[in-house]
Amino acid sequence: MEVGIVLDAGTSATGLHGLTELFTYAGQMAARRQGQVALPSLRITHWKSEPGGSCVTCTYDSSAEAHHDLVVLVLPGNLRATQSRSRDEVLIAWLRGMHARGVVIAAVCGGVFILARTGLLAGRQATTHWALHDQFSREFPDVLVETDHMVIDYGDVLTAGGVLAWADLGLRLVERLFGPGVMLDTARYMNIDPPGREQRFYSDFDPKLKHGDSAIARAQEWLAGQRERVISVTELATHACMEPRTFLRRFTKATGMKPLEYQQRLRISRARELLEFTRASVNEIAATIGYEDVDNFRRQFRRFTGLTPSGYRQRFGAEARESYAPLVTAAAS
Fold first, then answer.
1. Is the pLDDT of residue 222 over 80?
2. Do 84 and 195 fall into the same domain?
3. Given pLDDT bands bounded at 50, 70 and 90, which one contains residue 331?
4. Rounded distance, CA 41 to CA 74, Å?
């Protein structure tokens, strides 16, 4: 089977070489299992559209074969693709043609912008880096953006989140090509988690502030310093010198959410900080940010982050950071 990786001037070197190595290791793991299970070998190629060129050419091939029979094409992360709406029509037409021939098209982070420009994501869900959510939504209103997810798999097209989500996407493709056994072998060998992470483990609340409503922006600034208590719409409206109904309407229009939802996100953001940097108990943290019912706090925390408070602390808290300290000390010495 042949897996192709598509690159241009803006392609992330980390994604390009990381995916190449991941698929190389997967092919080796598959070969080791051939004594027990008949598994096909894996051929890896790189494809590039030169600026001003008229075609997409193969620039690297792990095999000496002349004929290509691609089953998957992957677009790694690409920051340049997010900074310009210019279209590489040659590359876009080639990707559409490959998809029409049955080739699976997958993209990571900024590479999802290139995939979206082919029209293959129209009417579907897609993910990209969580910080690019609003920009992607504006540029591609016909695509439903779901940046809580690390990978969204439609079978014929796949999208993945942040720059390093190439590992999650690559393992998902390895599982499809070779099965879960080879996927897990590859993950263990590379010391990376098998698929299952979500972007919301990492993303923090990033409220809209550049919406043009200065009165609401001032209310948001004030709210940012009030993350440890619940504030009614009436109190908020009074602070903003508005009638409650007017405030509610303008706040929802400016921020995209109602004040209660907005405050819950602020309070959960504060809870994340307390879990990361203090040793306060979950009960103490819940009380600190105004949750009288600790079970409700746990439910809300998991709804926004995808993890329980204890699970979040285990992954990101002080003890987790301290476990890395000996490694850092050894490297420095």
1. yes
2. yes
3. very low
4. 18
